Amino acid sequence: MPLATAEASAASDLANADANITAIEACPKFATLSSDVARARADAATASVKLEEARRDATAHDLNSIKRWINTIDARAKAAAEARTRLEMEIARLEGIVESEGGKGLADREAAAREQAEAARAALQRVTEEADTLKLLRQTLDQAREETSAKFVGPVAGRAKRYIERLLPGCDLSFSEDLALGAVIRGGISEGCADLSRGTQE
């Protein structure tokens, strides 16, 4: 009797399995399933390579170092401008002495001061151009990082939204650049991940 019961149960399971297989094979997508899976795997591999390249590009330049360079260059530019102002005042003073005393060897000092002032102007121009270049580089890197984040984080957030709607209806997710959960948005209010309960985070 136990064996007969087990046989009947196994026969029922076999019939259900055969029915499921028949239903799956009858699905229109079943014919292209293998090619779809292969194409999806190829797309995933390509996306993984692009993501790695984007991460490498995003970390190629240290933004903190660029900011320090910009601050240093700004300080140098300010010092150069102050030096130019002092030299121009010295030139004016020497010119006044030359006019009042008729030269007396001050012409050479005036010429040297003029050369120093010209060198200061050139240095200021060079430092200003360097600062502008670094600022443009920082802006470009910020823009590239934002575009990379939108390109890779957007699809992840969109796909996760389908599942979070089942658990927390009416909620939306916000991810960081490294695809970590940043916040949950409920009723238009953003709640940081660290402020959520452990159960909600899970």
SSE layout:
Layout: H1 2-26, H2 33-58, H3 63-101, H4 106-167, E1 171-175, E2 181-186, E3 189-192, H5 198-201
Antiparallel strand pairs: 1-2, 2-3
Helix pairs in contact: 2-4, 3-4
Provide an overview of this structure.
The protein is mainly α. Helices cover 77% and strands 7% of the residues. The chain is built from five helices and three strands. Strands 1-2-3 form a three-stranded antiparallel beta sheet. A hairpin with a 2-residue loop joins strand 2 and strand 3. The longest helix has 62 residues, at 106-167. The chain is rod-shaped, with a radius of gyration of 36 Å. The two termini are 48 Å apart.
Summarize model confidence as the mean pLDDT.
Answer: 79
> What's the main sheet like?
3 strands, antiparallel
Instruction: Report how far apart the termini are.
Output: 48 Å
What overall geometry do the principal axes of the alpha carbons give?
Answer: rod-shaped
How much is the radius of gyration in Å? 36 Å
Strand content: 5-15%
Question: What is the count of DSSP helices, taking H or I runs of 4+ residues?
Answer: 5
Care to count the β-strands?
A: 3
Biggest sheet, spatial arrangement of strands: 1-2-3
SS-derived structural category: mainly alpha
Parts with pLDDT < 50 across at least 5 consecutive residues: none
The percent range for helix content is over 70%
**Helix/strand order, N-terminal first:** HHHHEEEH
